[in-house]
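User: Predict the complex with nicotinamide-adenine-dinucleotide.
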Amino acid sequence: MRLGIPKESASGEHRVALVPETIGRLGEGVDVVVEPGAGDAASFSDEAYREAGASIGDPWSAEVVAKVAPPSAEEAARLHEGQVLIAFLQPLTDAEGIERLSRAGVHAFALESVPRITRAQPMDALSSQATVSGYKAALIAADRLPRFFPMLMTAAGTIPPAKVLVLGAGVAGLQAIATARRLGAVVSGFDVRPAVREQVESLGATFLDLGVQGEETEGGYARELTPEQRAAQQAELQARIPQFDAVITTAAIPGRPAPTLVTAEAVRAMRPGSVIVDLAAETGGNCELTEPGQEIDAGGVTIVGTTNVPSTMPTHASQLLSRNVASLLGLLVADGNVALDWDDEVVAGTCVTRKAEVPA
Ligand code: NAD
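Assistant: Here is the predicted structure with nicotinamide-adenine-dinucleotide placed in the model:
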């Protein structure tokens, strides 16, 4: 069986779906074909792929194609019936892209749809990439803040530590809390899922009690708040946010626009020099003033709306993603052949389009 690894074509996408290190872990009977230059932006050369046993060539005719971003219309046109595709396919928001793959009869596996059960953890690419985003968000906040994160006692006097608030304490939020703590900031965290309080506190942060509590779905995600809960949360945050030097927001509801947590009024109340890093920028932002893909100055407050943050750390983001892809592939391939077991809840749950099967 051949596994094709295309060079990503989406603007700003520096990751690659498979890194040389993973090739040796794919098992017997899997030949890897990598498009020339596919790993360049993530610091993996064609030479490194060759040394790991891959060939450099056209990845699109392989039985399985693994990539990062959803295929463009031109790329999708190169796929054929019965082929397996693994990628972030945005199944809840990109209906047109999914329809295209469905028409082509491709067995498409969306990395976002891997069920969040213990057995599937090694395949959980949302978590691996959120870890990168959370870490980087804390570094961006520290970099943009015109103050120190840690407390410093110097001959020139004592500098108090920065106060950082992390809103949304899922995988990215918890990593942002841990990283900001390591840098010496005093950190508070908040999430609508009640189970999170303990996790926030175990990282040495304070749980901000806003008196708003949401619900958790079976998959461990937050349910959207009611309009009353949303209003109560915004009002509570409005009062608390001006006490913080940096606010990192990560709140998300799968398939829905990001909830507004930081209103324009709350930004106006922040001290000049304060920083907001909005990891939800891609789905509209948790801050009302965020401009996705931009870094802006709003009355002296820096608002960072960088999108695709994992791609800003492409080497390790790709390495983690590559291990997720290899683990998923392990479920889709047996003895060097594609073998799709639709009774497996991870295989069935991750698949978003499949070739129509003719009844026997
Ligand atoms: P996510 O990216 O969908 O959302 C980020 C966070 O935003 C979540 O914690 C969510 O509760 C929070 N949020 C939503 N609306 C909010 C609001 N109005 N105010 C404040 N916070 C809000 O979530 P995620 O990071 O992908 O993870 C969600 C859950 O899934 C976590 O509990 C995580 O531990 C769990 N998980 C489980 C597994 C597993 O295998 N069992 C694997 C990965 C993640």
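Residues 116-118, 121, 124, 126-127, 130, 167-173, 190-193, 220-222, 225, 233, 250-254, 259, 261 surround nicotinamide-adenine-dinucleotide (CB under 6 Å).
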